[in-house]
Amino acid sequence: MSNPAAADAAEPTPDPSSSTPSSPPPALQPQSPPPPADPTHFDAIVLGTGLTNSITAAALVRAGKSVLHIDRNEFYAEHLASFDLVTLLRILGDAAKDSDDPFLGCYDEFEVAVNASDGSTSTTSSEPPAPPAPPALSTDADNPLAEAHAVDNSEKSALHPTPAPAQQPPSTPPADLEALITAYTTDYPSTATLFSHQPTPHSRHALLTLLRTSRQYNLELSPRIIYSRGALVDLLANSGVGRYLEFRPLDRIHLFWDGRTEQVPGSKEDVFGNGSVSLVEKRRLMKFLTFAVGFEETPEVFEDYKGKPYAEFLQAQKLSPRLIAFVLNATALIVEQHALSTLTTEQGLLLTQRHLRSLGRWGKTAFLVALYGAGSELSQAFCRLCAVYGGTYILNFPLAEIITTLSADDGGDVVVAITAKDGTRYTADRLVASPAYVQFLAPELRPKLTSKSVYRCVAIVDRDVHGSSNAAAAADHNQPALTVTAFPPEAVRNGQGVTAIQQSWDVSACPKTQAVIHLSASGDGSSHADVRSALQALVKPSGATVLLAATYRRHQQRVETAHAEEDVWWTAGDRIAVTRDEGGSGLDLEACGDEARSVFTRMMAGAEEAEFLPGVADPADEED
Amino acid sequence: MATRKKVLLKVIILGDSGVGKTSLMNQYVNKKFSTQYKATIGADFLTKEVMVDDRLVTMQIWDTAGQERFQSLGVAFYRGADCCVLVYDVNNVKSFETLDSWRDEFLLQASPRDPDNFPFVVLGNKVDMEESKRQVSQKRAMTWCQQKGGIPYFETSAKEAIDVEKSFQTVAKNALQQESDVELYSDFPDPIKIDGETGRQGGDAGCAC
Amino acid sequence: MSADQHHQKKVKTTNEEREAQRQRSIKKLAEYKGLCSLVSAKRKAKEYDDAAFNLTTKLLSLNPEFYTMWNFRRQIILDRRTRMDTEAYQALCLSELQLADAALKINPKSYWVWNHRRWILENMPEAAWTRELKLLGRMLDMDARNFHGWGYRRYVIAASGARSPKEEFDFTTEKISQNFSNYSAWHYRSKVLVQAFADPAERAKVIDNEFELVRNAIYTEPADQSAWLYQRWLLSLVPQDMDRWSKELESVQELVEIEPESKCKVIMQGQG
C-alpha cells in the first residue's frame, strides 16, 4: 500500500512538541476547483447506499482509499430510505408496475386505504380536533385536476425528487398528481376489513388533504430503533458521524397480552411503578434482571439450559407466563417475533443483557429513535463523512453492467469496471455491492439469492393510539408517544407475531398530534391480514381514526453464503463482496456496523493494519 | 423546518463548485482573537459563537462536502436549516444564473414551513478581482434578490475579507428571527446528539437495575 | 489495493487531525486568556460600561465557574440600575436569568450560578418565581438527584409561596416514580407530607398509601437505602400502631424468604 495518507495513519503519534507552529491551518482549506476530468479509477467502488455499504465506504476512505459510491436510485439508503408521503406512494406504485427493476422488484401487493368516513357522521365529534382543516378544499369534487393545482409547488415537485440544480426549476405537469390520485382512489383496494366505507368523493378529499401536507411526513421503508449503548452508538460517537444526527428516546414498550396492550416494565422504575404486578413477582423479576446483567459471572445458573429455549430457562426462574412474555418481548425486542420461540438461552441472555445495559442512558427505555428515520439518516451521515474525506458520490446512476477481467491465474489481478447506459465507465480494484446489484454481475460471480416475504403496513392515524379517548389528553400539547408494541405469535391470527412502532412529530414523522404506525410480520404463513388485524387492535381502544393505511409486501433478499453465520458473499478472490439486504422485519441496525467492519477488515487484509473508522478530533471540550 | 426552539442555528451554504463557499466559511470562522472557533473533521461544518442582540448563539455552518458535484446532496443535508446562504462568483455569470435552481432545490428539499419568509442571504463573491473580469453587475444581482422577496445581498471577498463578517452577521440575525422564542428549558427538550463526549462519558453509568 | 491518490481533496490522517486539534486548543486558550485580561483591566479600572458587560457575558458563557466575573457582573448591574427605569431593569434581570440558565446547562452543580440566580431574584422588581419553578422542573427532569436543585427548590417555594405543600408532595411522587433511588426526593417528601396533611384522618390514609409505596420500592430494590430510611421515618410517625408494625415486619420476612442475602435482614433486626 503506497498511499501516503494511509501510511501516515499507521505511524505512531509524533511528539506534539516537534511540530512547528507553521503547520497547515487546522480548519478548512479553500476548495480547489473541480478537476478538469474526473478520475475514472478508484481503489473501491461501492454500489448501493444502504447503511452497511455507507459505513464501509466511509471506513475505506478514512483508511486512505479512494472510493466511488454509487446508487441507481435517486435517493440514499436503499431499503432503509424514508420518504415524504407522495414519494412513498409513488415508489410503491411504480414498484407494482416495474417488477424487473432490482430495487422496485422487491415490493409488490401494494394497497392503499383512505379513511372515507364523512365528517358529519363522525362519531368522534367529542374528541380533539384532528389534523388542521385543509386550506379551502376545492368545492368542485368532480374535478380533481383543480384540486391538484391547489397543492403547493413542493408537493407537485415531490413527484420528481432531486432535480439537478442546474436544470430548470421544478415544474411538474399536474397530470402526475392527477394520475396518482386517480390510481389511489378509483382503483380502490379491497381493504374492507379495515374500512367499512366504499370509495367516495369524500375519500378523494381525504387523500388530497394528506397529500397537501406530504412533505411533513417522513415515512420509513424499514423503521428502526437503536440501542442506547452498543457498538453502533459507539461507532457514531467515535467516528464523528453522530454530530450529523438527532435522536429522541423511545418512550415505552408495549405488549399485546390477553386482548389488550400493556406497558412492559423494562427498567427498575417501570417495575416499581407497575400496578398490576404483585410484590413477589416484582422481586422475582428484579432478581432475574439483576442476574442477567452479569449472567456470565454465574454460569452455573444457566448451564443446564444451554442450547435449550430461552422461555424454558425463564420458566425455571419461577417467572410467571406474563413475566416471561415481558422478558421475551421487551428485552429480546429486536428479534423478529416469529424467531422468539427458537431463541436459545445463551442468545436470549445476551439480548437481555444488551437491553439492560442500554437502560438509563437516555430516556426511559433502552432505545433511541432517530429524527426523520434511522436507516435513512444514518446512511446519509456515513456518506457525508465519506464525502468529507474525499469520497465521490453519484446517485441516480444509470448502471448498465459490471465487468470483471480476471487474469490468467484466477483470483489474481482483478479489475472491476462498471458501465453506465451512456457509456461512462469507472474501474476499481474492489467492489462492494448490495443484493440489488447482483444481477449486473457476470453469472459465474453471482451469489444465489432467495427471498423471504415481509408484510408491512404504514398507517397515518389522527392521534396517539395509546392515548385515552377523551379530550383531556389533547388539552396538553404532548405529542403521541414513541412506542414499540409487540404482538406475540399467540396474539395474532395465525401465530406468527407482529411488531408495531408508533412515531410522531417529535421525530418529524408526521404533522403535530398525528401519529404514524409501522407494522410488520415476517414468519412463514404471515399475511397482510396479520398486520391489518394488529393495526385494528392497536387503534381501537383509543378511538383513533386511521387516515390512511398502505400495505405492501417486501421481498427480503437472502444471499446464500458459504457459512451459515456469514452474511457477506465473497467472490473473485475477495475482490467482490455482496452485502446483506437490510430491509428485514427486525428492528435494530447493530448488524450493519458489524458487517461493515468485517467487509472492511477482509478487504484491507494484507495491507498495513488500518483502523476501522478511527476517531476524529473533537474540538469542543479540550480546555486546558 | 425550524420548528423547535434552540440556540443552535444551522446554516447551509449552496452554490456552484468553485464560487468560494468553503473559503467564505473559513474566512468568517477562522478569524483571530475575540471569537472562538471549532472546526470539525475535513471540509465538514464549522461552528462559531456570535452575539445577536445581546444573546449568544451558536452558528453551525455546513459545507456541501463536494456532494453537489453529481447532484447527490441527500435530503439529510438540508434538514432543519435555519438560514440558507446562496453564493455565486461575480466573475462567472453561469454561477449567478444557477442561483434560481439552488434556491428551488433548497425549498424543495428542506421544505420549510413558511417558504415565502424563509431567510436566504445572497453573496456575490470574489469582488477582489479586477473590474474588467466582472460578469454580473451589482444592479442585476440586486434586482434578482428583490424579485425573490427582498433577499439581503452582499458583495464579498473571502480572500481579502471584504464584508464577510457583515454578511454572516446578517445570516445569524435572520436565522435567529426564525426562532420565535429561544428559551433554554422549553417544553420541547432538545433532541439527543451522540458526539465524542457522549462516547467517552457514556451517560449514566451502569444499568438501572 | 493499489494506492494512487486520485483525489485532490485532502485526506487528513488521525495524526494530522490531532495536531490540528492541538493547534485549535492553543488558539482557543489564547483567546480565553485574552478575554480574561481584557475583563480584568476593566474591573480594576471600575469601568462598568457595555463593553465590560458583554465581555463578562462571553467569559461566563465559556466558564461559569469564574466566580469573580459573577461578582463584577453584579457590580455592573447595580451600576446600570441607577440609570434605568423599573421596566428596563426587570428586563435586564430576566435576561440575566437566561444567562444563568445557559451556565447551568454547562454545569448544573455550579454553586456560583445558583448563587447568582438567587441574587437576581432577590434584587429584581418582580421576582420571576413561575419561571424559576419551570426551570427547576426541567433541571430535576435531567438529574433528579441534583441536591443543588432540591435545595434551591425549597428556597424558591419558601420565598415565593407559589406552590402548596400538597402540590409539592405530588411533585415528589412524580420524581420518585421516575427514580426512587433518590434520597433528596424522599427527604423532601417527608418534609412536605407533614405540612400537606394536617388532618389526622387524612394523614392516616396518606400514611397507609406511603407504606404501600415504599414497600414497592423495597421489593423492587432491597439494596436501596433511601426507601428503607423513608420506611423507618414512616414507622416513627406511628410509634403505637402495633398492627402496622407487625404488618411491615411480615412483609419484610416474606422478602427475606425470597432474598435471604439481602440487607433487609439487618434492618429488620434493627427495627424488630
Task: Please provide a brief summary of the model.
With 624 residues, chain A is α+β, with helices and mostly antiparallel strands.
Number of strands of chain A: 21
Number of helices of chain B: 7
Briefly, what CATH class of the largest domain in chain A?
Answer: Alpha Beta
Helix residue percentage of chain B = 25-40%
Q: Biggest interface: chains and residue counts?
A: A-B, 86 and 68 residues
Strand % of chain A is 15-25%
Per the CATH scheme, the topology name of the largest domain in chain A is Guanine Nucleotide Dissociation Inhibitor, domain 2
> How much β-strand is present in the residues of chain B?
15-25%
Oligomer: heterotrimer
Q: What is the count of helical runs of chain A?
A: 17
Average predicted local confidence, pLDDT of chain B:
81
In terms of per-residue confidence, which ranges of chain A show pLDDT below 50 for 5 or more consecutive residues? Answer: 1-37, 118-175, 184-197, 471-475, 619-624
* Biggest beta sheet attributes of chain A: 8 strands, mixed
Task: List the helices and strands of chain B in order.
Answer: EHEEEHEHHEHEHH
| Total count of strands of chain B | 7
End-to-end separation of chain B in angstroms reads 39 Å
Approximate helicity band of chain A: 25-40%
Total discrete domains of chain B: 1
What does this structure look like?
The complex is a heterotrimer of chains A (624), B (209) and C (272). Chain A has 624 residues and is of the alpha+beta class. Chain A contains 17 helices and 21 strands. In chain A, strands 1, 2, 11, 12, 13, 14, 20 and 21 form an 8-stranded mixed beta sheet that branches. Chain A is globular. The model of chain A is unreliable at 1-37, 118-175, 184-197, 471-475 and 619-624 (pLDDT under 50). Chain B has a single domain, classed as 3-Layer(aba) Sandwich (Rossmann fold), CATH 3.40.50.300. In chain B, 29% of the residues lie in helices and 20% in strands. Chain B has a 7-stranded mixed beta sheet, with helices on both faces. The longest helix of chain B is centred in the last third of the chain and has 15 residues, at 164-178. Mean pLDDT of chain B is 81; it is low at 1-6, 32-42, 181-185 and 199-209. Chain C is mostly helical and 272 residues long. Chain C has 2 domains: 32-163, Alpha Horseshoe (Serine Threonine Protein Phosphatase 5, Tetratricopeptide repeat), CATH 1.25.40.120; 165-272, Serine Threonine Protein Phosphatase 5, Tetratricopeptide repeat (Alpha Horseshoe). Chain C is 76% helix and 0% strand. Chain C has 13 helices and no strands. The chains are: A alpha+beta (624), B alpha/beta (209), C mainly alpha (272). Chains in contact: A-B, A-C, B-C. Chain A: Residues 149-158 have a biased composition (Basic and acidic residues). Chain A: Residues 22-38, 162-173 have a biased composition (Pro residues). Chain A: Residues 1-21, 117-127 have a biased composition (Low complexity). Chain A: GO terms for molecular function: GDP-dissociation inhibitor activity.
